[in-house]
């Protein structure tokens, strides 16, 4: 782990696992792939699969408990679509990216949380069916650009 960069993946529904692994191998970065179930992925020595107990937030809790960046000069990147987990990781000074490449930050996390709650309320009252857009090639490309940019940002700080 020459750059002290660690990537944490909220892996159960992550559509960019393969892309993350390619980037981690290219940069020689440690990856923790955290899920509620065993994932069938070929991985190398840099990747540690963490299977947590069943539970709604067990993977999120494991990531939030382990992502501390405040000691040992570790720089963490978390990949998640889960907005409350993104907030917890931002609070630990991690860089947080969604699978579409959207970067979460102190400036946009409040609005993301508010929109999440509003959408949840609309689904619960039947006002919304909870439609999610399909994951596209453009999303995959945006993600690759975003993660590479985040890694270069960390490397250029040194």
Query: Portion of residues in helices?
Result: 40-55%
Unreliable segments of 5+ consecutive residues: none
Report the CATH topology name.
Answer: Rossmann fold
- Supply Rg: 16 Å
The outline comes out as globular
Which strand-content bin applies to the residues? 15-25%
Task: Tell me the total number of β-strands.
Answer: 6
Number of domains: 1
Number of helices: 5
What composes the largest sheet? 6 strands, mixed
- Order of strands, main sheet, comes to 3-2-1-4-5-6
Distance between the termini: 15 Å
SSE order, as H and E? EHEEHEHEEHH
- In CATH's first tier, which class applies? Alpha Beta
- Mean pLDDT, as a whole number? 85
| SS-derived structural category | alpha/beta
Oligomer: single chain
Q: Can you tell me the CATH architecture?
A: 3-Layer(aba) Sandwich
Q: How would you portray this structure in words?
A:
- With 158 residues, the protein is α/β, with parallel strands linked by helices.
- It has a single domain, classed as Rossmann fold (3-Layer(aba) Sandwich), CATH 3.40.50.
- Helices cover 42% and strands 17% of the residues.
- It contains five helices and six strands, in the order βαββαβαββαα.
- A six-stranded mixed β-sheet has the order 3-2-1-4-5-6, sandwiched between helices.
- Helix 3 packs antiparallel against helix 4 (109-124).
- The chain is globular, with a radius of gyration of 16 Å.
- The mean pLDDT is 85.
């Amino acid at each position: 782990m020459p750059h002290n960069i660690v990537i944490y993946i909220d892996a159960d529904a992550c559509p960019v696992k393969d892309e993350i692994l390619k980037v981690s191998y290219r940069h020689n970065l440690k990856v923790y792939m955290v899920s509620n179930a065993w994932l069938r992925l070929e991985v190398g020595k840099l990747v540690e699969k963490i299977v947590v107990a069943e539970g709604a937030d067990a993977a999120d809790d494991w990531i939030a408990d382990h992502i501390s960046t405040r000691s040992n000069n570790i720089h963490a990147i978390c990949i998640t679509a889960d907005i409350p987990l993104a907030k917890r990781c931002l609070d630990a000074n991690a860089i947080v990216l969604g699978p579409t490449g959207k970067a979460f930050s102190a400036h946009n996390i409040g609005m993301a949380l508010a929109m999440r709650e509003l959408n949840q309320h609309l689904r619960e009252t039947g006002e919304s069916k909870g439609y999610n857009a399909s994951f596209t090639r453009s999303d995959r490309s945006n993600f690759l650009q975003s993660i590479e940019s985040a890694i270069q940002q960390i490397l250029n700080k040194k």
